[in-house]
Design a protein that fits this description.
Layout (H helix, E strand, L loop, with lengths): L28 E9 L7 E7 L10 E4 L23 E10 L3 E8 L7 E6 L2 E7 L4 E7 L8 E6 L14 E6 L5 E10 L5 E10 L4 E5 L10 E10 L13 E8 L7 H6 L2 E7 L8 E6 L7 E9 L3 E8 L7 E5 L4 H4 L3 E6 L4 E6 L16 E4 L18 E2 L6 E8 L2 E6 L4 E6 L15 E5 L16 E3 L5 E6 L4 E6 L4 E5 L10 E6 L3 E5 L6 E7 L2 E6 L4 E6 L7 E6 L5 E6 L5 E5 L4 E7 L14 E3 L6 E5 L9 E5 L5 E6 H6 L1 E2 L6 E7 L5 E5 L2
Parallel strand pairs: 28-33
Antiparallel strand pairs: 1-4, 1-6, 2-3, 2-5, 5-8, 6-7, 9-10, 10-13, 11-12, 11-14, 14-15, 16-41, 17-18, 18-19, 19-20, 21-22, 22-23, 23-24, 25-26, 26-27, 27-28, 29-30, 30-31, 31-34, 32-33, 35-36, 36-37, 37-38, 39-40, 40-41, 42-43, 43-46, 44-45, 44-47, 47-48
């Protein structure tokens, strides 16, 4: 089956110090416990245990929670004080239930949003785990003890859209379905017809019903674009055979994207051509940022509008952007006034979700606590901005410790990095498993705050301070608008030193302050009003709102020396993005436009590239690839010529498509010829 878009709820391990009650139950009965974990509004919870198929109130075996809610109270928002406490764990039972019989747990939440979590167990071994997603839900379980040893993979958080040239880490969640605590097991994966990669998971301690988030220690290097099958499974539990194989394996489909070609230097060597793609006629209103959907088959570019605080921001989704058959769709979520108020940035994820950063201080607009932070959304057109999910709109999740957010960058799955404009910090916000459209449980989030620097926002709350993640190295590059500089943070470094220094106003799985991490200022001059930022290969691009320049920096070595500027000629530029074909796109908040920068093929040096063909990575140290060429015969000869015009390497286009090895060449500049075409510049590094 396809890998789920969202990971399953990660429930902690549990155990009961309760003697077996088998002797107290009938000969055909087993003792069943029900553990309830409430959300921040425990008084909204009510449940009943009934025989399978019975309605609430019919043949009731047990009840719990706030009885005032009753069977018909789901979604009524009538929940007076009473019942369970907030964020508490309650063990109910045991109840003597007939072995191998089925029962229904009817869960009711008065508000109608994400409610309590329930674990059903026999003598400490889980036989059912349920997270309530709405106002009234029925969960069915069978009274049957689990096998002693039973592990499986329940969720994958592996990128659905890996990129050639970037090693892919296989990530997900393994679950202990068995009665016996797991201390060791084998984790394996296979991609397509490739080799099986195994990893010994030892020294773990997973109680019955517990989960373990994993990262396989053998990465996969995507070499060919297109769809590939992924299979992940567990085996050899506690040194012995898994006793139930039906739940061992999770399968799914990944789509490998060609690497984004680095043609930035061509913009400095040739003549850039500025193409206005859209304006206010296409519903752009103070656009602040943009991003491409990673599913290339959708061919979508999303632009984020600032709009007003009262209305909330909006998006314009362009399909086939910049092409003759381009279409656009303006959308605003029904509750954008809270979840997308004065948005500053948008970042597409690798799992069909995306996130935005509200620039407002108080998303409730009532002068209370600054209950504000990044919001997670689905890019599914059946979910995003649809008025189907109640008073909380279509948002998938939101956390609330980053007021006046100035920028956001995607890391992995539902993990994003945010520039906290109010505190001047950088904050990692990992939503982990979201609460679903229109719900409100935020307890799964992990938040880490980095405060050894100060990022100063625009005092007028207009010009942004964006950030971008280098997913290959782990460096996060951040614009400090007020400091007129760019800094970077090594996200692979640092340790937790205690609770987060700001807030919180709700409970999270983790909220910590980080220390001991590596960061440095890499650009300290030459910027007036820096705003947007993007990265391709070893080229960093920063937009300057004051003059419309896009400044290019070389980050291949120490520091980040400026190597050139692209003059757009129009002040007001904010977000910038390098598209899938390597061309640069940007939005201008002053003149309400979306633009693309092309290259004039009739001006410049002889190695002008076909806009539809690109080489990557460039510079290159190992294998060189070609993208966007599907029609030229694979036997077409390929030559690499050195600076004197001598042939240094020969091959075919077929080899270039699968990776032409240039590791034996000396460092320097070369010209690549495909058949009789003009040479395309290639830089070989060591």
């Amino acid at each position: 089956m396809p890998i789920p878009l969202r990971s399953c709820l990660i429930l902690g391990a549990f155990a009961y110090n309760v003697p077996s009650l088998l002797a107290q139950c009938g000969a055909d009965e087993l003792p069943v416990m029900i553990t309830v974990q409430t959300d921040p509004y425990g008084n909204e919870t009510y449940w009943q245990l009934v025989p399978t198929g019975n309605a609430c109130g019919s043949g009731t075996i047990a009840t719990g929670g706030n009885p005032v809610i009753g069977c018909n109270g789901g979604g009524t928002q009538n929940s007076p004080p009473g019942g369970y406490g907030n964020n508490t764990t309650i063990n109910e039972g045991p109840y003597c239930l007939v072995a191998d019989a089925s029962y229904d747990l009817i869960a009711i939440d008065a508000y109608g949003d994400d409610g309590a979590a329930y674990t059903v167990s026999i003598d400490g071994a889980a036989i059912g785990q349920f997270q309530q997603p709405g106002g009234s839900n029925t969960f069915t379980f069978t009274v049957h003890p689990p096998e002693q040893r039973d592990m499986g993979v329940t969720a994958s958080t592996t990128s659905l859209f890996p990129e050639m040239g970037l090693p892919l880490r296989i990530k997900g969640t393994a679950h202990n379905f068995g009665a016996q605590a797991v201390t060791a097991f084998t984790l394996a994966y296979r991609i397509g017809a490739g080799p099986v990669q195994t990893m010994a998971m030892s020294g773990v301690d997973i109680a019955s019903g517990g989960d373990l988030a994993f990262i396989h220690d053998v990465p996969w290097d995507p070499a060919t674009p297109g769809p590939v099958a992924l299979r992940i499974w567990t085996a050899d539990v506690n040194g012995s055979e898994d006793l139930s194989h039906g739940n061992d394996t999770l399968t799914g489909l990944l789509t490998v994207n060609p690497a984004v070609p680095n043609i930035v230097d061509d913009y400095l060597a040739l003549t850039p051509v500025f193409v206005e793609v859209a304006n206010s006629d296409q519903d752009l209103l103070v656009p602040r940022d943009l991003d491409f959907h990673p599913d290339r088959s959708r061919d979508e570019l999303w632009v984020l509008n600032k709009d007003t605080e009262a209305s909330g921001g909006s998006t314009v989704r362009f399909t086939h952007p910049g092409e003759a058959d381009e279409t656009f769709l303006w959308q605003r979520d029904p509750n954008a006034w809270h979840f997308m108020s004065l948005p500053t940035a948008i970042a597409m994820g690798d799992n069909n979700n995306f996130a935005t950063s509200p620039g407002v201080f108080d998303a409730n607009h009532n002068g209370g606590e600054p209950f504000t932070g990044p919001t997670l959304w689905s890019s599914d057109p059946a979910i995003y901005a649809q008025n189907l999910f109640g008073p909380l709109g279509s948002h998938l999740d939101m956390v609330h410790v980053d007021p006046n957010s100035q920028g956001i960058a995607h890391d992995q799955w539902n993990r994003f990095w945010v520039v906290d404009g109010y505190n001047g910090d950088i904050v990692m916000n990992d939503f982990r498993s979201d609460h679903g459209p229109g719900n409100d449980y935020h307890g799964n989030a992990i938040i880490r705050r980095y405060s050894l620097f100060t990022i100063t926002k625009d005092p007028n709350d207009h010009i942004v301070s964006h950030c971008v993640m280098d997913k290959h190295s782990g460096w996060l590059y951040v614009v400090d608008h007020g400091g007129r500089r760019v800094l970077r943070l090594n996200t692979n470094t640092g340790t937790a030193s205690g609770p987060g220094s700001y807030g919180p106003w709700e409970t999270y799985l983790e909220y910590t302050q980080m220390t001991g991490y590596q960061w440095e200022e890499i650009v300290s001059s030459g910027l007036d009003k820096p705003a947007g930022i993007d990265l391709v290969g070893d080229r960093l691009l920063v937009s300057d709102h004051a003059n419309g320049d896009i400044i290019v920096y070389d980050i291949s070595g120490s520091g980040a020396p400026e190597i050139g500027r692209i003059h757009t000629g129009a002040a007001g530029i904010m977000g910038i993005k390098v598209g899938p074909d390597g061309r640069i796109w940007y939005v201008n908040a002053t003149n309400h436009t979306l633009s693309r920068i092309d290259l004039n093929p009739n001006v410049g040096i002889a190695e002008t590239r076909d806009a539809e063909i690109a080489l990557y990575p460039n510079p290159v140290a190992g294998k060189l690839f070609i993208a966007n060429d599907r029609t030229t015969p694979g036997g077409t000869p390929v030559e690499l010529l050195d600076a004197t015009g001598r042939t240094s390497l020969r091959g075919t286009l077929a080899q270039l498509r699968t990776g032409l090895d240039v590791s034996g060449l000396a460092a320097g500049q070369y010209a690549l010829r495909i058949g009789g075409s003009p040479g395309r510049r290639v830089v070989v590094t060591r």
